[in-house]
Fold this protein.
Amino acid sequence: MEAIPYLAALSALAGLVLAAYYYKLVEAASPGNDRMVFLMTEIQKGARAFLKKEYQWVAVFAVAMAILLAVVIAPLAAVSYALGAVLSASAGYAGMTVATMANARTTEAAKEGPAKALPVAFRGGAVMGFSVAGLGLLGLMLTYLVFVEWAEVADAFEILTAYGLGASTIALFSRVGGGIYTKAADVGADLVGKVEAGIPEDDPRNPATIADNVGDNVGDVAGMGADLFESYVGSIIAPISLAAFALGLTAETSSNAIEFLVFPMFVAFIGMVASIIGSFMVKGGDSTDTKALSRALHMGTNVAMGLTIVGVIAGSYWIFDGADKPWGIGVSVVGGLVVGWGLGKCAEYFTSDHFNPVKKIAKQSETGPATTVLAGISIGMISVFASVALILVGIGIAYWGGDQTFGDAGDFSGGLYGIAVAAIGMLATTGVVVSVDAYGPIADNAGGIAEMAELDPSVRDVTDALDSLGNTTAAIAKGFAVGSAALTALALFKSFEFAIKLADPGSALNLDIGEVDVFIGLFIGAGLPFLFAALTIDAVGRAANQMIEEVRRQFREIPGLREGKEGVIPDSARCVAISTEASLKEMIIPGALAVVAPLVTGFISVDALGGLLAGALVTGFALAIFMANAGGAWDNAKKYIETGQHGGKGSDPHKAAVVGDTVGDPFKDTSGPAMNILLKVMTIVSLVFASAFV
């Protein structure tokens, strides 16, 4: 059993070796003609420049947090925090690097059909997927081994938790900053290009097209990678911290309950091995039908899930062989995995053009933008109820399973431990889940390059089919991330309660809503996700306004640009600069809000902070699901019309659908995805600083 952290670390290294292998495969593929290579290089330069500046800005905040941790908690907590932040940023940068290589190579492969293009895009995504899972798990195992097992330092579990806080910091700023960048460019490109100028998406005449394609990589690849890095790490830390704080463990006494600490690591180990095997199962076919492509792409995920289920059930009998019903905790993990899959399928139902919700929005577009927007809002709200029902089923199964194995012993609740490990069940196969998700923006970029390089329309048909599937895979990954966020936040919240009691045995967290401070905290927490969403949507709006004015100016002032006169090219660099500057300035306030709000509240009243976390968890979860699914549905309704339905491209319904898609852009790619990070950042900040609050 003591070997499990080492096995997990070895599996992480194997994941990183696989990422390097896929990188070499992508690199060996042909990037196409000179024009395609030029476009790929421009996108690479823009993405690298943005990430470099973003990390410089975030480094200032991270240094301030590290100093605060060193002073208030322990100097080693600052080291752990820095490691989590650096590895999260590294995973995002690695993913962005290969995604900006894979885009043109996917376009070139699309000339031969989806059978060639799908594996190239997937391998590009797999570099991101296994970099995220490999670096996240390896860093966490090293932190655990160094501080808990080898050095046996004081406050070892607070130091371990700080690793998760470092990952959360990068994730929040990457999601918010990258999301503002990509949607400012996307909104500007769509509204002026498609609606006002009447030119196709990704047309080379549009000055914002390069910035839009850069945005796919900094928002949907680097930002998403940092998001799922943080989700994955947080889901492993949650059950470890719950057991440690509930049982009052220190590094010296950790061997007394070693099984509770290593079981989450075992689940991660099995999930990593299963993901590696599953990644080899993805093979493209000759059909451009999205159902056939979806089956091919999700084969890897389904194989990984099946292997994980078998491995986890077997592991529960091995690790908890002394329990009467060791299968119970295995059921908790499998329940989380299945509910995560169910949340993904729920997202697919509400966002795929194969089902009625998206077709309903497309039908409503015949009567204008207003009814298009209303239909998307209602579908997003309905999807919340379905997702909440699934989460409650998952919580019920996980609690029952944990209770069957452990029951309750003093402060330790077997049911709550079951809920905590259900979250890692949802994200055990992170390697392959992120691979499938990162495939989407690569396919989107591939379509943009096909259009800008003026390739044969058949190439764009293949990339459009891949891209349409990419929207759905993104919604599925967001379902996994938001679902795990709810369970992880609940486990971390309970850990926070135990940490308060450990820090001051005379005090206990009071969550009686009849108490005024708890009630006030509850309402502040309920309002914070809305404030956060408003700040990020407004930021996209302001940045998009600058982009729109710049695109209009270029169409107006550059002779022959709008008409497509030969030799006339737009000033794309100016649009890239606008998105970069605007997004970096706009990400500071929303990002700081997630850290400052719980710190200020906690130093005033711990009970109010408890209410704040509870209120934020409930409304934040619902808002995240609503925004992600409504935005995805609007986007695919537009794409459904572009296939020739309801008048096709250029028709009035298409223009109405473009407006709906534009409204949904910050919903699904900025505010919605950042919401689950907001929940965990606030909870993990509260947990790390719990001893300082009392």
